[in-house]
Predict the 3D structure of the following.
Amino acid sequence: MTTKFPVCALLFLALNLSAQVASHAPTGVKPAMAPMAPTAPMAAPMVISDKPVAKVNGAVLTDRDLLREMYSIFPYAKQHGGKFPKAEEASIRKGALEMIIFEELVYQAAVKTKLTIPETRISQALAQYKGSFHSPDEYQQYLKIEMQGSEQRVRDQIRRSMMIDRYLKLEVEDKSAVTPQEVRAFYDKNAAKFTQPERFAFQSISIMPPIKPTPDQAAEAKKLAAAALEQAKKTKSAEEFGLLAEKISQDDFHVDFGRHKPTARKELPPQVVAALDHMKLGGVSGLIQIESAYTIIRLNEHIPAGKQSFASVKASVATDMQKAKYEHLRSGLDKKLRANAKVEIMQGS
């Protein structure tokens, strides 16, 4: 039977052996899901009995293996007594099952190719792993409960993880590298992807009465807006305008100096666009009324429409291309390994 580390163990993180979920999971699985809402209905925690959940060419994978991977996908469950949200439990379980099957297939392929890991590296990893426990007694308790008192079993699991990593590096990671020439060719053939519309970066100060203000509320808002405009016109820099925005603005942008990221013309209200079209860099607008609210803006940058330069995007393009190639190769490896494997999933898994 294949024995894995317990959920509480820190092996894969502490040793940086594999970024387990990210590199081992087959394409389509989404690890590290977002935390559950505080009021989300919870499923009952899994009861671990080491019962088989799948067989891969005769190697048995257990519910302990499955739970470890479920925690990898949704680590927040450990903060809730091992409970997963009911709405997500089935998909988390399915994804985890696919992961452990894929991992076992990769391990068996590594064994078949006679891939080896030097004993010195395993010893170093074991020493680091021991250091991840709070005390020697805690490690000994782990050995007794999870490894039947055998440190050799721990070494075997470290070896297994390293072999999986090594095989994936050779068959997926190394082959997913992209050359500068490939990046340039992609840039040249996909001009539309790198063409950006005209954009404006600005700061705002807003006075926002209720959506349907009373006459008194509307009058008070106009009075506050006029006072805000008088102060805004006196500012001499983006920093001074931003400090004023943090102090008096009533919109959501006030927490960041009133800053708005570069925004396309078509995404802005027409009243704001009309003001921007007549402003110089560093200029402060008059009052811009949008329904019952008043806004004052400071223009910080006007970015004409145009194509991003290759130099400005080549790093991100290379990263995106490498990721896409990696996923394609990993998916292909999964299909290749399954094609000649006997995979049995136990009923109820």
In short: The two ends are 17 Å apart (CA to CA).
